[in-house]
Specification:
single chain; iron; elongated; 358 residues; tRNA processing; oxidoreductase; cytoplasm; four-stranded antiparallel beta sheet; alpha+beta; two-stranded parallel ribbon; 4Fe4S_Fe-S-bd; 36% helix
């Protein structure tokens, strides 16, 4: 039963206005309310799984139909508050860094503190603020950590549209932002959904993907995606994709960088998203020479921890193979070879071959 303070449409509408104000006070760029209808995405998602486009991410095939029914994930859910937060620091180079082949390129969301921790904390603060206003509202906060179709929910909330690169785009900020959700049992008035996807005839993200990972518009083959390969994938990187990875050692931003909507990107003022340990501009050789203790110390509280030290070395070995040929690069690879794991050794040998005249 609703508290008497929310007994009229007017008081509920005012609560939504307050929630959007509070969201900005907690650092979110936007908050919108939706009553999601997600069953329409079920067939396409099943087809994507059946085609094996989820690669080694078996967890995406788990949980049955739960991702299409938010009320199963959190019983009593009547609405979802969809929120986004900018993460790109103004001082951080993007295209310029990709073009400097002896420098490492790390996806710009991963340069600072793990966004899961930051955004989850802010979502919880917002949910408790709502609770202070209306009492217990049966909420649960999520940040990319459960079977949730977060981009579809955001699209239905009117926040933007899903682009051909499968990312959420908005004319207000391109796609340089992260999403989070609050599931609630409050019957809040909903925002108008997005009804048009404004990509038009543009195919920049599809044609300029370094590894041709897009099967067609809105369909990504994760097994070819550099973000998957450098973060989620365990084992050897397919040989035919290594030379295409360039200096990208953790994640990939290319399909954002070439998107025309990127010109509307907004920058973040959040300290936690600022680069740590010079990760936005560090030499590949410097990072490759980290031992495991250094890796663990310098990636504490960072999303980079997810890939693990061995895969970190694997990724950098490939990048060094794609770097300009010089004595320092060759010696660095040769010096690492004797003590490398079998997995890393395979990629070091490949990298050295790239610097050997044919």
């Amino acid at each position: 039963m609703l508290p008497s303070s929310l007994s009229t449409p007017e008081t509920l509408q005012q609560l939504v206005a307050d929630i959007k104000t509070w969201a900005k006070e907690f650092g979110f760029a936007e908050a919108r309310v939706v009553e999601p209808e997600l069953t329409q995405y079920k067939d396409d998602f099943k087809k994507w799984l059946d085609n094996g486009y989820h690669a080694g991410m078996d967890y995406l095939a788990n949980h049955g139909d739960m991702r299409f029914h938010p009320e199963q994930l959190h019983p009593g859910t009547r609405r979802v508050i969809s929120l986004r937060m900018h993460y790109l620091p103004q001082s951080v180079a993007t295209v310029e860094r990709l073009q400097t082949k002896n420098k490492a390129y790390i996806a710009r969301y991963a340069l600072g503190r793990d966004y899961h921790k930051l955004i989850r904390k802010r979502l919880t603060q917002l949910a408790k603020k709502i609770e202070q206003q209306v009492g217990d509202h049966g909420y649960r906060a999520f940040v990319d950590s459960a079977p949730i179709l977060e981009r579809q929910i955001a699209e239905q909330s009117g926040m933007g549209w899903i682009g051909k690169n499968t990312l959420l785009l908005t004319p207000k900020a391109g796609s340089w932002f992260l999403l989070g959700e609050i599931f609630t049992n409050l019957p809040l008035p909903v925002d108008k959904p997005t009804t048009t996807r404004h990509c038009g005839s543009c195919t920049a993200c599809l044609t300029q993907c370094p590894t041709d990972a897009f099967v067609e518009p809105w369909v990504l083959d994760a097994g070819k995606c550099i973000s998957y390969l450098t973060i989620e994938h365990k084992g050897a990187i397919p040989v035919e994709l290594r030379s295409k990875m360039g200096n990208r050692i953790f994640g990939c931003d290319d399909c954002q960088l070439v998107c025309p909507w990127t010109k509307f990107a907004k920058h973040t003022d959040e300290d936690d998203f600022q680069p740590r340990h010079n990760l936005d501009a560090e030499d590949l050789i410097t990072l490759f020479e980290w031992d495991e203790a250094t890796f663990l110390k310098k990636t504490e509280g960072s999303p980079i921890r997810r890939t693990g030290f061995e895969n970190w070395q694997r990724n950098i070995a490939i990048a060094l193979g794609n770097a300009p040929t010089n004595q320092a690069t060759i010696e660095t690879l040769q010096n690492a070879l004797p003590n490398a794991s079998d997995l890393v050794k395979e990629h070091i040998i490949w990298a050295l071959d790239q610097h050997t005249p044919s």
